[in-house]
Design a protein that fits this description.
The protein has one domain: TIM Barrel (Alpha-Beta Barrel). It has 335 residues and is α/β, with parallel strands linked by helices. The chain has nine helices and ten strands. Helix 1 packs parallel to helix 2 and helix 3 crosses helix 4. The protein starts with 7 loop residues before the first strand and ends in a 44-residue tail after the last helix. One zinc ion binds next to loops.
Length: 335
């Protein structure tokens, strides 16, 4: 936790054990974690909850960790043009929301999605209609998780690469009577950068915060994915980098980390090499940034972190990857 109470977490793999992931997060000074509830690249969902789930939840409570976030399956696209896939996505999202309380999760985070060759207005209407339908179908008790929609870098037909587009989605949800309390927003800093927000400059961070508040309302900002980027500004590319070691850099990342307007949001690292020791390195870099300390040089091999180098998002947990990964159209992914 930062001195101002700001909470910091990371997306940690569960493949080595769920309780072990909680212990690891705690040991490296984090306050919470983001996880996958199941294989994020398959439509198939496990029939039974993981055996370690009660122990996981108990340890989270004991250590005062939270708010826990579930990153929804990557296949979920509520904005698409294929109604079968949109329905399947809605059912998958409903499953994520329904299992969230068993994980002690307060947030279920999904990407805003892609309109898949229609247009932004059509995609926005699809997304809002589907979210309204799913939320009407999922219990809203005191343990219910909040759906958190994440900005995109703008590749393909991705919705939500600008604050104006996110505001359009928020307005479309309000028109459908979706309570504001049930849907929050996640800003991924690497996606902001890919979308053309020059947040390497603290003045631009200020401007983004002011604009977010004007267009959407800062009370809707629930999560920040705190990633540096190895993509070019405005390239629409989404390539995560170690904190302060990418094209956003230390000054911009520090401005996001310490901005008074963002202190109510929870920060989650989605940086490379989480299972190779870089979880601790990036957690330490966050604390150094917050304290105004200069960042240490990364180990020389940091650019060569296996497995994460070409990935744009957290990798599936090995134990949950029990069937061939498919892309969002259900076709096998190319390696
Ligand atoms: Zn993200
Ligand atoms: Zn990303």
């Amino acid at each position: 936790m930062l001195p101002d109470g700001r909470r910091i977490g990371a997306h940690l793999p569960l493949g080595q054990g769920m309780v072990r992931a909680v212990e690891r997060a705690h040991a490296i000074g984090l306050d919470t974690l983001q996880i996958f509830s199941d294989n994020p690249t398959a439509w198939h969902r496990r029939a039974e909850p993981p055996k370690e789930l009660p122990a996981f939840r108990a340890r989270i409570v004991e250590l005062g960790m939270g708010p826990i976030a579930i990153h929804g399956a990557y296949l979920i696209n509520l904005a698409g043009s294929d109604s079968t896939l949109v329905e399947r996505s809605g059912a998958m999202l409903a499953t994520e929301l329904r299992v969230a309380p068993a994980f002690g999760a307060r947030f279920v985070n999904v990407h805003l999605g892609s309109h898949r060759g229609t247009d932004r207005a059509t995609g926005t209407a699809r997304l809002a209609g589907e979210v309204a339908r799913v939320l009407a179908d999922v219990d809203d008790g005191p343990d219910a998780a909040r759906l958190v929609l994440e900005n995109s870098a703008g590749s393909g037909d991705g919705l939500g690469s600008s604050l104006e587009e996110i505001a359009g989605v928020v307005d479309a949800l309000a028109e459908r009577g979706v309570p504001a309390a049930r849907v929050g927003i996640c800003l991924d800093t690497a996606h902001l950068w890919g979308a053309g927000y020059a947040i390497s400059d603290p003045a631009e961070v200020d401007r983004v915060v002011v604009e977010f508040d004007r267009l959407i309302g800062l009370d809707r900002l629930a999560m920040i994915h705190f990633n540096d980027s190895r993509a070019a500004l405005g390239s629409n590319a989404d390539r995560h980098e170690h904190v302060g070691a990418g094209s956003i850099g230390a000054a911009g990342m520090r401005a996001v980390l310490t901005h008074p307007g963002l202190s109510h949001a929870t920060y989650y690292l989605e940086t490379p090499g989480m299972d190779e020791g870089y979880d601790a390195i990036n957690a330490a870099r966050v604390l150094d940034l917050a304290a105004g300390r200069p960042l240490a040089d990364l180990p020389a091999e940091a650019k060569e972190v296996k497995g994460s180098r070409s990935r744009t998002h957290p990798a599936p947990d090995p134990e949950t990857t029990d069937e061939p990964a498919t892309d969002s159209r259900g076709r096998p992914r190319k390696p």
